[in-house]
Here is the input.
Amino acid sequence: MKLTVNFNSKLQTSNFKLMKKKNIISIVIIAVLIVIAAILIGNNRYLSTLRGEAADFTVYDTASITKLFFADKSGNQVVLKRNGSSWTVNDQYNANQNMVNEMLYTLNRMRIKMPVSIKKSDNIVTRMSSTNTKVEVYQMMPRINLFNKVKLFYHEKRSKVFYIGDVTQDNQGTYVLKEGGEKVYIVHLHGFRGFISSRFTANPIDWRDHTIFNEKMADIASVKLEINDDPDNGYIIKENGRYQYSMNRLNGEPVAFDTLRVLNLMSSFNNVRFEAFLNDVDPIRRDSIINSPFLQRLTLTTKDGKSSSITTFRLRTNADLFDFSEEELNNPDFDKMINDPDHKYALLSEGNEFVLIQDFVFGKLLKPADYYSRDYREEIPQIYYKELETVESK
Here is the structure.
Protein backbone atom coordinates (compact mmCIF):
# COMPACT_ATOMS: atom_id res chain seq x y z
CA MET A 1 0.00 0.00 0.00
CA LYS A 2 2.84 2.38 0.88
CA LEU A 3 4.57 1.63 -2.37
CA THR A 4 1.48 2.68 -4.34
CA VAL A 5 1.11 5.98 -2.40
CA ASN A 6 4.76 6.89 -2.82
CA PHE A 7 4.62 6.14 -6.53
CA ASN A 8 1.52 8.31 -7.04
CA SER A 9 3.09 11.09 -5.00
CA LYS A 10 6.27 11.02 -7.08
CA LEU A 11 4.22 10.91 -10.29
CA GLN A 12 2.22 13.99 -9.23
CA THR A 13 5.44 15.82 -8.30
CA SER A 14 6.99 14.99 -11.66
CA ASN A 15 3.89 16.17 -13.54
CA PHE A 16 3.86 19.41 -11.54
CA LYS A 17 7.51 20.11 -12.39
CA LEU A 18 6.89 19.33 -16.05
CA MET A 19 3.87 21.64 -16.16
CA LYS A 20 5.85 24.36 -14.37
CA LYS A 21 8.66 24.03 -16.89
CA LYS A 22 6.20 24.23 -19.80
CA ASN A 23 4.55 27.30 -18.27
CA ILE A 24 7.93 29.03 -17.91
CA ILE A 25 8.79 28.24 -21.55
CA SER A 26 5.38 29.52 -22.64
CA ILE A 27 5.82 32.71 -20.63
CA VAL A 28 9.27 33.26 -22.15
CA ILE A 29 7.91 32.66 -25.68
CA ILE A 30 5.00 35.04 -25.07
CA ALA A 31 7.37 37.69 -23.67
CA VAL A 32 9.65 37.37 -26.71
CA LEU A 33 6.65 37.67 -29.04
CA ILE A 34 5.43 40.74 -27.17
CA VAL A 35 8.86 42.36 -27.49
CA ILE A 36 9.03 41.55 -31.22
CA ALA A 37 5.52 42.89 -31.73
CA ALA A 38 6.39 46.07 -29.85
CA ILE A 39 9.49 46.54 -32.00
CA LEU A 40 7.54 45.97 -35.21
CA ILE A 41 4.71 48.28 -34.15
CA GLY A 42 7.17 50.95 -33.06
CA ASN A 43 9.18 50.62 -36.26
CA ASN A 44 6.00 50.74 -38.34
CA ARG A 45 4.89 53.87 -36.50
CA TYR A 46 8.35 55.35 -37.09
CA LEU A 47 8.24 54.52 -40.79
CA SER A 48 4.66 55.75 -41.05
CA THR A 49 5.71 58.98 -39.37
CA LEU A 50 8.60 59.40 -41.81
CA ARG A 51 6.31 58.65 -44.74
CA GLY A 52 3.85 61.23 -43.50
CA GLU A 53 6.58 63.81 -42.94
CA ALA A 54 8.08 63.01 -46.35
CA ALA A 55 4.90 64.43 -47.89
CA ASP A 56 6.05 67.83 -46.60
CA PHE A 57 8.87 67.75 -49.16
CA THR A 58 7.99 65.19 -51.85
CA VAL A 59 5.68 66.03 -54.77
CA TYR A 60 4.12 62.84 -56.07
CA ASP A 61 2.20 64.49 -58.91
CA THR A 62 4.75 66.71 -60.65
CA ALA A 63 2.42 67.17 -63.64
CA SER A 64 0.25 69.38 -61.41
CA ILE A 65 3.13 71.77 -60.60
CA THR A 66 2.51 75.19 -62.15
CA LYS A 67 5.23 77.27 -60.55
CA LEU A 68 8.43 76.98 -58.49
CA PHE A 69 10.00 79.77 -56.47
CA PHE A 70 13.57 79.80 -55.10
CA ALA A 71 15.22 82.48 -52.97
CA ASP A 72 18.58 82.44 -51.19
CA LYS A 73 20.31 84.56 -48.58
CA SER A 74 22.41 86.33 -51.23
CA GLY A 75 19.31 88.08 -52.56
CA ASN A 76 18.87 85.85 -55.61
CA GLN A 77 15.31 84.97 -56.58
CA VAL A 78 13.89 83.00 -59.45
CA VAL A 79 10.37 82.02 -60.52
CA LEU A 80 10.00 79.05 -62.85
CA LYS A 81 6.57 79.02 -64.46
CA ARG A 82 4.99 76.36 -66.61
CA ASN A 83 3.83 77.63 -69.98
CA GLY A 84 2.19 74.71 -71.75
CA SER A 85 4.94 72.20 -72.50
CA SER A 86 7.76 74.67 -71.76
CA TRP A 87 8.89 76.76 -68.79
CA THR A 88 9.94 80.39 -68.35
CA VAL A 89 12.40 82.10 -66.01
CA ASN A 90 11.04 85.19 -64.24
CA ASP A 91 8.47 85.60 -67.06
CA GLN A 92 11.26 86.85 -69.36
CA TYR A 93 13.40 84.02 -70.65
CA ASN A 94 13.04 80.44 -71.79
CA ALA A 95 14.12 77.92 -69.16
CA ASN A 96 16.61 75.12 -69.65
CA GLN A 97 14.21 72.20 -70.04
CA ASN A 98 16.80 69.62 -68.96
CA MET A 99 17.34 71.42 -65.65
CA VAL A 100 13.59 71.78 -65.09
CA ASN A 101 13.08 68.07 -65.76
CA GLU A 102 15.87 67.26 -63.30
CA MET A 103 14.21 69.44 -60.67
CA LEU A 104 10.80 67.80 -61.18
CA TYR A 105 12.47 64.39 -60.87
CA THR A 106 14.21 65.53 -57.67
CA LEU A 107 10.97 66.76 -56.09
CA ASN A 108 9.27 63.50 -56.99
CA ARG A 109 12.04 61.15 -55.80
CA MET A 110 13.34 63.08 -52.80
CA ARG A 111 12.99 61.00 -49.65
CA ILE A 112 13.77 61.43 -45.96
CA LYS A 113 16.84 59.45 -45.03
CA MET A 114 16.58 60.15 -41.31
CA PRO A 115 15.68 62.92 -38.86
CA VAL A 116 18.51 64.87 -37.26
CA SER A 117 19.01 64.21 -33.55
CA ILE A 118 17.82 66.87 -31.12
CA LYS A 119 21.41 67.37 -29.97
CA LYS A 120 22.58 68.36 -33.46
CA SER A 121 19.37 69.99 -34.66
CA ASP A 122 19.90 73.36 -32.93
CA ASN A 123 23.34 73.83 -34.51
CA ILE A 124 22.07 72.92 -37.95
CA VAL A 125 19.04 75.23 -37.67
CA THR A 126 21.38 78.05 -36.64
CA ARG A 127 23.59 77.36 -39.65
CA MET A 128 20.61 77.13 -41.98
CA SER A 129 19.34 80.51 -40.79
CA SER A 130 22.30 82.14 -42.54
CA THR A 131 22.71 79.75 -45.48
CA ASN A 132 19.62 78.28 -47.09
CA THR A 133 17.43 78.32 -50.15
CA LYS A 134 13.71 78.80 -49.70
CA VAL A 135 11.59 76.58 -51.93
CA GLU A 136 7.93 77.18 -52.72
CA VAL A 137 5.91 74.71 -54.79
CA TYR A 138 2.63 75.72 -56.46
CA GLN A 139 0.21 73.12 -57.79
CA MET A 140 -3.23 72.89 -59.37
CA MET A 141 -5.29 71.29 -56.61
CA PRO A 142 -9.05 70.64 -56.18
CA ARG A 143 -11.08 72.56 -53.61
CA ILE A 144 -13.28 69.48 -53.24
CA ASN A 145 -11.71 66.02 -53.05
CA LEU A 146 -14.05 63.14 -52.17
CA PHE A 147 -12.13 59.98 -51.29
CA ASN A 148 -9.55 60.90 -53.91
CA LYS A 149 -12.11 59.93 -56.55
CA VAL A 150 -14.20 63.03 -57.16
CA LYS A 151 -12.10 66.19 -57.59
CA LEU A 152 -13.76 69.51 -58.31
CA PHE A 153 -12.89 73.20 -58.65
CA TYR A 154 -9.17 73.15 -59.36
CA HIS A 155 -7.15 76.21 -58.40
CA GLU A 156 -3.49 77.12 -58.01
CA LYS A 157 -2.29 76.63 -54.46
CA ARG A 158 1.04 76.96 -52.69
CA SER A 159 1.31 73.37 -51.56
CA LYS A 160 4.79 73.17 -50.01
CA VAL A 161 7.28 75.54 -48.45
CA PHE A 162 10.60 74.32 -47.09
CA TYR A 163 14.24 75.33 -46.76
CA ILE A 164 17.19 73.52 -48.34
CA GLY A 165 20.37 73.69 -46.26
CA ASP A 166 23.92 72.56 -46.84
CA VAL A 167 25.23 69.00 -47.16
CA THR A 168 26.02 66.39 -44.55
CA GLN A 169 29.63 65.62 -43.60
CA ASP A 170 29.68 62.48 -45.74
CA ASN A 171 28.32 64.41 -48.76
CA GLN A 172 25.55 61.83 -49.12
CA GLY A 173 22.62 63.88 -47.85
CA THR A 174 21.11 67.36 -47.67
CA TYR A 175 19.53 69.09 -44.68
CA VAL A 176 15.95 70.28 -45.13
CA LEU A 177 13.52 72.09 -42.82
CA LYS A 178 9.79 72.64 -43.27
CA GLU A 179 8.58 76.22 -42.88
CA GLY A 180 7.37 76.64 -39.32
CA GLY A 181 8.87 73.31 -38.30
CA GLU A 182 11.50 72.62 -35.69
CA LYS A 183 12.73 69.21 -36.79
CA VAL A 184 15.50 69.00 -39.37
CA TYR A 185 15.70 66.04 -41.74
CA ILE A 186 18.33 64.59 -44.03
CA VAL A 187 16.98 63.92 -47.52
CA HIS A 188 18.47 62.05 -50.46
CA LEU A 189 17.60 60.42 -53.76
CA HIS A 190 17.43 56.64 -53.93
CA GLY A 191 20.20 55.28 -56.12
CA PHE A 192 22.05 58.60 -56.22
CA ARG A 193 25.30 59.03 -54.31
CA GLY A 194 25.74 62.68 -53.50
CA PHE A 195 23.81 65.73 -52.38
CA ILE A 196 20.98 67.64 -54.05
CA SER A 197 21.35 71.13 -52.55
CA SER A 198 23.11 72.46 -55.67
CA ARG A 199 20.03 71.66 -57.75
CA PHE A 200 17.97 74.20 -55.82
CA THR A 201 19.77 77.25 -57.15
CA ALA A 202 18.11 80.68 -56.93
CA ASN A 203 20.35 82.31 -59.54
CA PRO A 204 18.22 83.04 -62.65
CA ILE A 205 21.24 82.64 -64.95
CA ASP A 206 21.57 78.99 -63.91
CA TRP A 207 18.05 78.25 -65.15
CA ARG A 208 18.16 80.06 -68.49
CA ASP A 209 18.21 78.20 -71.78
CA HIS A 210 21.52 78.25 -73.71
CA THR A 211 20.00 77.60 -77.13
CA ILE A 212 21.04 79.90 -79.99
CA PHE A 213 19.65 78.01 -82.98
CA ASN A 214 17.07 75.26 -82.88
CA GLU A 215 15.63 75.00 -86.37
CA LYS A 216 14.74 72.08 -88.57
CA MET A 217 16.32 71.97 -92.00
CA ALA A 218 12.91 72.27 -93.71
CA ASP A 219 12.15 75.52 -91.84
CA ILE A 220 15.31 77.41 -92.88
CA ALA A 221 15.01 79.98 -95.65
CA SER A 222 18.61 81.23 -95.73
CA VAL A 223 21.98 81.18 -93.97
CA LYS A 224 24.45 84.04 -94.27
CA LEU A 225 28.06 84.14 -93.09
CA GLU A 226 30.18 87.32 -92.95
CA ILE A 227 33.93 87.05 -92.34
CA ASN A 228 35.46 90.36 -91.31
CA ASP A 229 39.07 89.83 -92.41
CA ASP A 230 38.16 87.77 -95.51
CA PRO A 231 34.92 89.22 -96.96
CA ASP A 232 35.26 87.34 -100.26
CA ASN A 233 34.90 84.08 -98.36
CA GLY A 234 31.56 85.09 -96.89
CA TYR A 235 28.43 83.59 -98.46
CA ILE A 236 24.67 83.36 -98.46
CA ILE A 237 22.76 80.12 -98.99
CA LYS A 238 19.09 80.27 -100.01
CA GLU A 239 16.50 77.55 -100.40
CA ASN A 240 14.99 77.50 -103.90
CA GLY A 241 12.77 74.49 -103.38
CA ARG A 242 12.48 71.49 -101.10
CA TYR A 243 16.11 70.69 -100.22
CA GLN A 244 17.24 72.67 -103.28
CA TYR A 245 19.74 75.45 -102.57
CA SER A 246 21.76 78.17 -104.24
CA MET A 247 25.01 79.56 -102.86
CA ASN A 248 26.67 82.89 -103.64
CA ARG A 249 29.61 84.77 -102.22
CA LEU A 250 28.66 88.11 -100.71
CA ASN A 251 30.01 89.87 -103.81
CA GLY A 252 27.38 88.02 -105.85
CA GLU A 253 29.68 85.41 -107.38
CA PRO A 254 27.96 81.99 -107.49
CA VAL A 255 29.68 79.05 -105.81
CA ALA A 256 29.80 75.62 -107.45
CA PHE A 257 29.22 73.91 -104.14
CA ASP A 258 29.46 70.36 -102.88
CA THR A 259 25.82 69.42 -102.26
CA LEU A 260 26.58 67.00 -99.42
CA ARG A 261 28.55 69.62 -97.47
CA VAL A 262 25.80 72.21 -97.84
CA LEU A 263 23.16 69.68 -96.75
CA ASN A 264 25.30 68.81 -93.72
CA LEU A 265 25.47 72.50 -92.83
CA MET A 266 21.74 73.12 -93.22
CA SER A 267 20.95 70.13 -91.02
CA SER A 268 23.30 71.30 -88.25
CA PHE A 269 21.14 74.08 -86.78
CA ASN A 270 19.12 71.86 -84.48
CA ASN A 271 19.88 72.41 -80.77
CA VAL A 272 22.97 74.64 -81.14
CA ARG A 273 23.98 75.99 -77.72
CA PHE A 274 26.56 78.30 -76.21
CA GLU A 275 28.70 77.35 -73.23
CA ALA A 276 28.03 80.11 -70.69
CA PHE A 277 26.61 83.55 -70.06
CA LEU A 278 29.21 86.26 -69.44
CA ASN A 279 27.05 88.66 -67.42
CA ASP A 280 29.75 89.03 -64.78
CA VAL A 281 32.27 90.55 -67.23
CA ASP A 282 33.14 94.16 -66.41
CA PRO A 283 30.90 96.43 -68.58
CA ILE A 284 33.89 98.46 -69.79
CA ARG A 285 35.69 95.31 -70.93
CA ARG A 286 32.48 94.01 -72.53
CA ASP A 287 32.05 97.21 -74.53
CA SER A 288 35.69 97.10 -75.56
CA ILE A 289 35.30 93.56 -76.91
CA ILE A 290 32.06 94.05 -78.83
CA ASN A 291 33.36 97.31 -80.36
CA SER A 292 36.52 95.61 -81.60
CA PRO A 293 36.62 94.08 -85.13
CA PHE A 294 34.45 90.96 -85.19
CA LEU A 295 35.57 87.60 -86.56
CA GLN A 296 32.40 86.16 -88.08
CA ARG A 297 28.71 86.97 -88.13
CA LEU A 298 26.31 84.11 -88.81
CA THR A 299 22.67 84.93 -89.57
CA LEU A 300 19.88 82.38 -89.93
CA THR A 301 16.46 83.32 -91.33
CA THR A 302 13.45 81.01 -91.14
CA LYS A 303 10.58 80.75 -93.62
CA ASP A 304 8.28 82.63 -91.25
CA GLY A 305 10.60 85.66 -91.39
CA LYS A 306 12.32 85.21 -88.03
CA SER A 307 16.00 86.15 -88.11
CA SER A 308 18.67 85.50 -85.48
CA SER A 309 22.41 85.98 -85.59
CA ILE A 310 25.60 85.46 -83.64
CA THR A 311 28.71 87.64 -83.90
CA THR A 312 32.03 86.22 -82.73
CA PHE A 313 35.12 87.94 -81.27
CA ARG A 314 38.61 86.83 -80.32
CA LEU A 315 39.19 85.47 -76.85
CA ARG A 316 42.79 86.09 -75.88
CA THR A 317 44.62 84.12 -73.24
CA ASN A 318 46.42 86.03 -70.51
CA ALA A 319 49.96 86.35 -71.90
CA ASP A 320 51.33 87.18 -68.45
CA LEU A 321 50.61 83.63 -67.32
CA PHE A 322 52.98 82.15 -69.92
CA ASP A 323 56.73 82.41 -70.05
CA PHE A 324 57.04 83.62 -73.64
CA SER A 325 60.52 84.10 -75.02
CA GLU A 326 61.75 87.40 -76.47
CA GLU A 327 61.60 85.86 -79.92
CA GLU A 328 57.95 84.87 -79.46
CA LEU A 329 57.03 88.30 -78.13
CA ASN A 330 58.56 89.94 -81.24
CA ASN A 331 56.86 87.53 -83.63
CA PRO A 332 54.49 89.42 -85.99
CA ASP A 333 51.91 86.66 -85.43
CA PHE A 334 52.17 86.87 -81.64
CA ASP A 335 48.73 88.46 -81.44
CA LYS A 336 47.24 85.39 -83.10
CA MET A 337 49.35 83.03 -80.99
CA ILE A 338 47.65 84.09 -77.79
CA ASN A 339 44.13 83.57 -79.14
CA ASP A 340 42.22 80.80 -77.39
CA PRO A 341 41.83 78.11 -80.10
CA ASP A 342 38.90 76.42 -78.37
CA HIS A 343 36.67 79.35 -77.37
CA LYS A 344 35.37 82.67 -78.64
CA TYR A 345 33.37 85.55 -77.26
CA ALA A 346 30.00 86.00 -78.96
CA LEU A 347 27.19 88.51 -79.05
CA LEU A 348 23.66 87.26 -79.70
CA SER A 349 21.18 89.36 -81.61
CA GLU A 350 18.39 88.09 -79.38
CA GLY A 351 18.58 89.97 -76.09
CA ASN A 352 22.01 91.42 -76.89
CA GLU A 353 23.50 88.68 -74.73
CA PHE A 354 27.27 88.37 -74.30
CA VAL A 355 28.25 84.70 -74.13
CA LEU A 356 31.08 82.18 -74.46
CA ILE A 357 31.01 79.63 -77.30
CA GLN A 358 33.06 76.53 -78.07
CA ASP A 359 34.86 75.92 -81.35
CA PHE A 360 33.85 72.26 -80.99
CA VAL A 361 30.22 73.33 -81.57
CA PHE A 362 30.61 76.31 -83.91
CA GLY A 363 33.68 75.32 -85.90
CA LYS A 364 31.58 73.38 -88.41
CA LEU A 365 29.11 76.28 -88.77
CA LEU A 366 31.69 79.00 -89.44
CA LYS A 367 33.63 77.50 -92.33
CA PRO A 368 34.27 79.87 -95.31
CA ALA A 369 32.76 79.64 -98.77
CA ASP A 370 35.90 77.95 -100.15
CA TYR A 371 35.21 74.94 -97.92
CA TYR A 372 31.93 74.23 -99.76
CA SER A 373 33.46 74.47 -103.24
CA ARG A 374 33.62 71.22 -105.20
CA ASP A 375 37.31 71.90 -105.87
CA TYR A 376 38.17 72.21 -102.20
CA ARG A 377 40.60 69.65 -100.84
CA GLU A 378 41.18 69.68 -97.12
CA GLU A 379 44.84 69.52 -96.14
CA ILE A 380 45.79 66.37 -94.30
CA PRO A 381 48.60 66.89 -91.79
CA GLN A 382 51.71 64.93 -92.72
CA ILE A 383 53.55 63.09 -89.97
CA TYR A 384 57.19 62.34 -90.67
CA TYR A 385 59.32 59.66 -89.10
CA LYS A 386 61.64 62.15 -87.39
CA GLU A 387 58.67 63.85 -85.71
CA LEU A 388 57.45 60.66 -84.08
CA GLU A 389 58.33 60.02 -80.48
CA THR A 390 60.91 57.31 -79.96
CA VAL A 391 60.00 54.78 -77.28
CA GLU A 392 62.84 52.65 -76.04
CA SER A 393 62.06 48.96 -75.74
CA LYS A 394 62.70 47.22 -72.43
